[in-house]
Amino acid sequence: MIQNSEVLIVVPAYNEAVSIARVISGIHSAGFSCVVVDDGSEDDTSHIARKAGAAVLTLPFNAGVGGALRCGFRYAVENGFAAAIQCDADGQHQSHHFQDLIHTANETGADFVLGSRFLSAENTMDPHFVRRFAMWWLARVASRATGRKITDSTSGFRLIRRPLLDELAEHLPEYYLGDTFEALVVLGRAGYTVEEIGTAMSPRQSGVSSASNGRAIALIGKSLTTVLLGIHFRIKKKAQ
Amino acid sequence: MMSLVGYTIFRVSQQRVQAIEIAVVACAFAIAIIMLSRRNRISFRYTMGWLTLSALSAVGGLLLPVIEPLSRKFQLGAFSLVGALAVIVLLSLCIQLSISISGLQRQLRKLNEDIALQKKEIDDLRDSKQ
Fold this sequence. Notes:
The complex is a heterodimer.
Chain A: E1 7-13, H1 20-29, E2 33-38, H2 45-51, E3 55-58, H3 64-78, E4 83-86, H4 98-108, E5 112-116, H5 129-146, E6 158-161, H6 164-171, H7 178-189, E7 194-198, H8 213-229
Parallel strand pairs in A: 1-2, 1-4, 2-3, 5-7
Antiparallel strand pairs in A: 4-6, 5-6
Helix pairs in contact in A: 3-6, 5-7, 5-8, 7-8
Chain B: H1 2-10, H2 14-38, H3 44-62, H4 64-73, H5 78-129
């Protein structure tokens, strides 16, 4: 059983000075401790996060979301946390869902619990149809790798428990989709169990999405190729 | 052009002219590498690698007459065989460099994280003293 006090909320942040204090406040109000990983921001993200009472890791240069997450996961492992929940710094992820992720992990014993935007009744996401088709295709590949139906393979809202957390703290790639879709396929192929629940997403409080539609589609193609050819990163298989 | 000049004016065989051409290009390449190395643009390790390649190319050019019988077995001219070998060596070097860069990226990634984690420890220590 994972207790709330054994869970660390990892918040990768790049130039999120506008929203970070509110996000940290939401996490603390929900009764969780968090670490903000400042991914080489050029604004006051680190300073504001520290003032808001979060533990802050400041990367000397921008390493990408995956790089920031890996650092946060390392911090969680080194400080003895049993699980970590990834949460965006732009205020889109709602802190009341942390408990849902933990509850599902405890109920099912899953190593990885994914918060799906598409399973939520409050879903407001409406991507371009080409992007939607690409996301559907990614979900199909992820479902096949994990052996359960996945609806949102690119979600950045998930709980990861040990020993999977140790593996991702060491090997999670930093490139786009490497930390989400590819990680999902890799952990599925390594025998770790995945559960998915519906989690609503708030509109972005600040900033813009890191990938345009065209770029996202190109990167989705690259990621699919990586997975289909089996040239993705590797983690230790789950001990039976 | 050089082959034509050598062939018509100095009356040396075409193969010798080709050998001289290869040697000249290899020497020019070696000089360029030495100059880059002296300006600290290339590390000692890679300087030695590229100089060895230059030396092998020069020697390969001089050995064109010896290589001729071997090249006939591959249905190639001696010059083409030397060229093909050079391409293989260059591709091997590119792969080696890719491996080196990937290793450096891994190290840099780890260093980046280590700095962030240690900075946090320093900040915590500083806070606890105050």
